[in-house]
Amino acid sequence: MNSKEDFYCLVLSTGQARFLATSKYGIDRMKALMSLVERAATADHEYEQKGFTTTVHIGQVVMSEVELSRLWKCDRKTVSKVLDTMNELGLVATKQNNRTSIHTLLCISAWYDEGQKIINPYYVPIKDRFTDEISTSVNNKVIMANGSADSATDTTKPEQIMAMVPGVDVSSERVPDTPQSISHDSTTIIM
Predict the structure, then answer these.
(1) I want to staple 189 with a disulfide (CB 3.0 to 4.6 A). Which of 10, 144, 175, 184 is the partner?
(2) How many angstroms separate the Cα of 174 from the Cα of each of 27, 30, 177?
(3) pLDDT tens-place string over residues 110-136
(4) Residue 170 pLDDT greater than 90, yes or no
(5) How far apart are CA 94 and CA 186, in angstroms?
(6) For residues 69 and 78, is the Cβ–Cβ distance under 8 A?
């Protein structure tokens, strides 16, 4: 039995929390998100499978829709719909290729693992998730805040991404938003 307790700093808007709290087609959306959070990288590492190689960064999960359908115990079409909505709501940014999918978590600001704080370089504060001016480079693809994607190759590093977000000072360590610093239409869940 594993007695280790993990802590996650999730920042959700009311709409995001309501989406996760409801269930449709027999899938628990909060469990689906938590399955991604629990599998997210907490350190950069190389991923290689069947001739496909990539670097997985902190805050990213590599899983195909087939793998997720087995994990979530539902069909691929349901997985696709849930992921599409999570992308539209700004919870995750997903990039698919011919081998798998890379899911980047945008709603988790940090993890606490064995007393060590791990900052998610892809975290997007709630106030910045829905503005059209902001673009975030994820997995060599530019994902606009409105959900559209530009397939132009981009080699922007996570710290450069955060520099694109207005009001973010990357010269010092980022501190996750606290309940006191978050607007009234958002919900913080610490698990």
Answers:
(1) 10
(2) 34, 26, 9
(3) 998 888 899 999 999 888 876 543 344
(4) no
(5) 23
(6) yes
Residue 116 corresponds to which tokens in the numbers above?
């060590």
Residues 148, 109 contacting (CB under 8 angstroms): no
Picking from 152, 156, 37, 154, the residue whose alpha carbon sits closest to that of residue 86 is: 37
pLDDT of residue 130: 65
Burial of 123 (0-12, 13-18, 19+ CB in 10 A): buried
Residue range 95-113: average pLDDT? 91
- What order of strands is seen across the sheet that includes strand 92-96? 60-62, 101-105, 92-96
Locus of tokens 């959900």 = 147
Question: How many angstroms separate the CA atoms of 1 and 73, rounded?
Answer: 24
* Average pLDDT, integer, range 28-55: 92
The amino acid occupying position 111 is: W
Q: The dihedral of CA 9, 105, 127, 157: what is its sign?
A: positive
Instruction: Tell me how far apart the alpha carbons of residues 101 and 112 are, in angstroms, rounded to a whole number.
Output: 25
